[in-house]
Design brief:
The structure is a single chain. With 144 residues, the chain is of the alpha+beta class. It is 49% helix and 22% strand. It folds into 2 domains: 2-74, no CATH class; 82-142, Beta Barrel (OB fold (Dihydrolipoamide Acetyltransferase, E2P)), CATH 2.40.50.140. It has helices spanning 2-21, 26-43, 46-74, 82-85, and strands spanning 89-94, 102-105, 108-114, 127-134, 137-142.
């Protein structure tokens, strides 16, 4: 039963150390150490504890860690702020040309300009698509 306490302490110490590293390696080893503690509590055989720890460690590092990293690095997939406005539909409020104009975008009136000098001015009431946000100006393109 003494080894169970050692496995438990090592497992908790590794999980606490994970807070500092944030790389999902130490937490996987900490969980594996807890499995080792459980194996010791059930069997009392150090060899079985080590095998359980090794198998659990390899399994967690090979299977669980990559999935966790993908999940946390991918973020929510929900665009916010200016990023959420790109590709959004807007309606021209005052004629939009390459230099000036206004559109109603996401419930607010934004200053706007056309994406290209070659395009003719876009008349009020026309639906447009936001191509980019440049400062406080929506760069738009007429919808086809």
């Amino acid at each position: 039963m003494a080894w169970a306490l050692v496995w438990l302490i090592v497992g908790i110490a590794l999980m606490i150390a994970e807070v500092l590293s944030g790389d999902f390696v130490l937490i996987m080893l900490g969980i594996a150490a807890l499995f080792g503690a459980g194996a010791d509590a059930l069997t009392g055989n150090l060899l079985i504890d080590v095998v359980v720890f090794a198998v659990t460690s390899v399994g967690m590092l090979a299977l669980v860690r990559p999935a966790l990293k993908r999940r946390f690095l991918a973020g929510s997939g929900h665009r916010t702020g200016i990023d959420a406005l790109i590709g959004a539909r807007a309606v021209v409020v005052s004629t939009v040309d390459f230099e000036t104009g206004q559109v109603k975008l996401a419930g607010d009136v934004w200053s706007a300009r056309s994406i290209s000098e070659q395009h003719e001015p876009i008349a009020p009431g026309t639906a447009v698509t936001v191509v980019e946000i440049a400062g406080a100006t929506a760069v738009v393109s007429a919808e086809l």
